């Protein structure tokens, strides 16, 4: 089955959106990862939810996890305040998560290999017109969609 047939719409933000909107989208939609598009609507980054959560944890706590045990909830509640006034591009983790994408004709094993190799729960499907350098987001293939496909194929065997 080609990627175009597995691709689904997926909520996203752009690099210019407020960081707090990105965090809210991830939380309210129960997303496994944040899909970030550039201002032209092309995939810019896919950031797993665990890495988004890591952006609100102070670096000194990341370096010494024992500090997390002594920080009370009142201080923990203030962690999200670091999002205020920042754009998604300013807020993204230092370790950039390049957007993984495949063309609309990619097969399920190609998609699965890209996803597994990069440890991300979704891969964007981008269609490029001939001669065009930029592409158009068709949708994404999630790990759940791949597993549904594999299980359905196994049931038919």
CATH architecture: Roll
Average of the residue pLDDT scores = 85
Order of helices and strands: HEHEEHHHHEHEEH
Give the biggest sheet. Answer: 3 strands, mixed
DSSP, total strands: 6
Give the count of structural domains: 1
Radius of gyration: 18 Å
Strand content: 15-25%
How would the global form be characterised? globular
In the CATH scheme, the class would be Alpha Beta
Which ranges are low-confidence, i.e. pLDDT below 50, for 5 or more consecutive residues? none
Q: In which range does the helix fraction lie? A: 25-40%
Query: What is the fourth-level CATH superfamily?
Result: CBS-domain
Instruction: Name the strands of the widest sheet in spatial order.
Output: 1-2-3
Keywords: CBS domain
Pfam families: CBS
Organism: Streptomyces spororaveus
Domain CBS: 93-156
